[in-house]
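Anyone? Bumping this.
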Amino acid sequence: MVPPKEDHDDDNNNLDFEDAYDDIPLQHKRPFGAGLHKQRITFVPASDTHLKSVDDAPASKPPTDIADLYLSLVLPTESGGGKQKEDSTPPEEPTQTSAEMPCPICKLPVSDVDREEHEASFAHQVCLPHSHPPSALDRTRMGLNYLATHGWDPDSRKGLGFEQQGIQYPIKAKVKDNKLGLGIEIPKGIPPPKEREKLLDAKQVRKMVAKDKRKAERLHKELFGDNKLEKYLGL
Amino acid sequence: MADSSRTNKRSSVEGEAQDSKRIKTNGDEKYNPYLAHLNEDNGNYSNSPLDKMHRHNTTALEASRAEDSDLNPWTGRRHSENYFKILKTRRDLPVHKQRQEFLDMYHSTQILVFVGETGSGKTTQIPQYVLYDELPQTHGKLIACTQPRRVAAMSVAQRVANELDVQLGEEVGYSIRFENRTGPKTLLKYMTDGQLLREAMHDPEMSRYSCIILDEAHERTLATDILMALLKEIAQRRSDLKIIVMSATLDAQKFQTYFSLRKEDPPAPLLAVPGRTFPVEIFYTPEPERDYVEAAVRTVLQIHAVEPEGDILLFLTGEEEIEDACRRISLEVDDMVRESDAGPMSIYPLYGTLPPHQQQKIFDKAPEPLKKGGRPGRKCIVATNIAETSLTIDGIVYVVDPGFSKQKIYNPRSRVESLLVSPISKASAQQRAGRAGRTRPGKCFRLYTEKAFKKELIEQTYPEILRSNLSNTILELKKLGIEDLVHFDFMDPPAPETMMRALEELNYLACLDDDGNLTRLGSMASEFPLDPGLAVMLISSPEFYCSNEILSITSLLSVPSIWIRPNNNRKRADEMKAQFAHPDGDHLTLLNAYHAYKGAEQNGEDVKNWCHEHFLSFRHLSSADNVRAQLKRIMEVNEIELISTPFQNKDYYTNIRRALLAGFFMQVAMRESSNSKVYKTVKDDQLVLIHPSTSVTNTYDWVVYNEFVLTTKQYIRTITNIRPEWLLEIAPVYYDVDSFEKGEIKSALVRLNEKVRRRQAMKGGR
């Protein structure tokens, strides 16, 4: 079979193996999957080595985290005191912060001065008690009637179970019909890889030739078939 | 005996326990039927090594002494030599060191959570420790140990019978669906979780058992989940029932809090036994992979080229993928052996539908080096996630994990249960990695980035109860007498919509009335270890004069496919199948094949050979035969007539086709248009194709199907042609035209109604 290519085999650190592989003359390439084992896959060791799937103490991060992040983005100059202010109203003197009390509804710090403004803010409005739109389930269903007689309210946004702690909606399935690895993201805007040109069989080739011939004849006739053109050109 | 007073009290508490065969102990040892054999063999009961042990008050030392004695305390016979050999290895198991600790905890609590990794010996040893403490022969109550899988229940029972030096089926037995190997002497019973659930339907207090061990609870199968909820309730009523929940993962907290019986109680106590595991080094790829199968193949080859001796376990998702990968790996390894003096490698596929003798091959030794002093050989097992928990293969040092597995998922809106390739959970990934550290320190290669591991994978695999059609479960719960399904204490309650769907399906099948109460039909249907649809079909088959035939079809549908279609002989297999084909449907084809098989059997032919020649699976046909016998017995108990239409009658097959509809009227599809091959399922409006495995060559307008298969396309498999008039006649409630949404199916039904009415009017006019 193929003699081992010296220039490839002893070069283990070559990262551009695929390119090097492409240099093999065509007649020496084997048709199916050949040389797969020479194309290395690199691995990096795990940063966290112990085999534990569940954290001992579930990380309960303080809810301020995201707010901090947001503020550090919008108020880059106030990097130290980002937590004190929530509104993007014009910055006030830091002395005022001491007078701020948390709003009883949305728990955000607010001073008496801009209470009205605060109450109009989106963050405050969202925290106000409000009702949800009713569930879309068909009320005439026998199953729903049964659950309702046993005390489940479809509009309550709760699940089943002893403390109604169950999931609200069934788990969604996602069909995976490709071999893409885990976590890969196909960047948008790049067209999908082109399909390879199809090989045509004899019949199709014959048809295509005939079609081309007809087309050429028609063109020929249009161009040279009558003497209109010659007349027009005054020949 | 010191605790005989306690035993007395107990038996008076549950004096009404049903099992009439079992005579309850009266405190008088002379009358105990369980010791009768001891007296015969020994002549003197006081010689028994168990004599001085007191129930719920034994020590590890006492038990060891009993185990060491010459006489087998359970049979009264002498211990064989082999017994002592096994006993020695048993004492080396990690769990043995904590026997006393286990007993102390067992005595002090009603419910115990036990965590031991695979290889700790918990499945075989803990039930025996319980056996030596419960001393069931003194009070007549058994010990049960549940397993999620039939194979595990059988093989573990065999193993434990060997370890105790008793006959399987005598003191130690097993019970799985359609097979019961226990006897009157049985003290310790391994069973599938589903089987214990079925027993609970007739014995809601589980009064036959003094201790129930739920093994592999971390797998969270449907039956285990329901058993947990049920046992939690029973434990509050029966303080003498002990429960041990065994799990292999570290996520025991959830079990502990769940099993604190009352709100104010502390969580159930936990006993953890370290597994015999070695550290596993974990590697990730720096970038996500484009093609995980190819990356997996290359990783295997890379390991073979550069890593020291040790076997490889590669996880892939399904049969096709696995066979493909095996082919590619073996091609490449041949190259490597030729080109670069690599060692030999044997490659074994492993998936559920593989015949057992081929599954056994994975335990073969790795191949020897090609020449003396050559590089060592290794084996590579390419498996689905059955190698994740259920099967332990020693010698695995390298694990390759692409991060996917096939998972069942149920959509209650379209009523489709399908197996889809999905990312695994973190717990699953860790379990896979752990497989590398069974014999020595190992390595796990994950074909995804560490970031993907942290961000893309969910913590725990969803329990089966959230991913399944619940109609069978709901029927069982109703039979168990659970009134309020809303507040039933599931560990993970299912989604309301899934529950609603199940209730409605049962309502249409007339197993539940409109208020959700069990009907007589429902009660009878729950007696059968079948899906409600199949059970209802079987029960109503005498009305169609074909219960014998429907019984056969039901059995054939309850076993894996009987057709064999080897890759290298597809054409011949198809020709053979065509011999049995019935133009009207696959159900009838199945029946023909079964009748031919029974015919060959009666003619005294070599059935195995006959099956081989006709490309039929002997294994599955004979198990269908067994299932048939079991179902027949249940039918006889319920006084369901077994009748047939004479074969010469022209309605022979028509009756069968009509009878199919009695249970499967919700699984009907109509052809979209007269020249299309696409069908639309009734009410769910799913567009489907007929699975290419069908033997039906005509295209019919209306078909009933057995299952819905979702792969890259949506298929319906095992179909039979029906006439739509039958639908209106057999299931008028479901086919009430007003309940249909506008569409082709509705207009077809309206036309049909019109036709039927006209015909009746004509008849009336005459």
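Late reply, but here is one note on the structure posted above: The radius of gyration of chain B is 29 Å.
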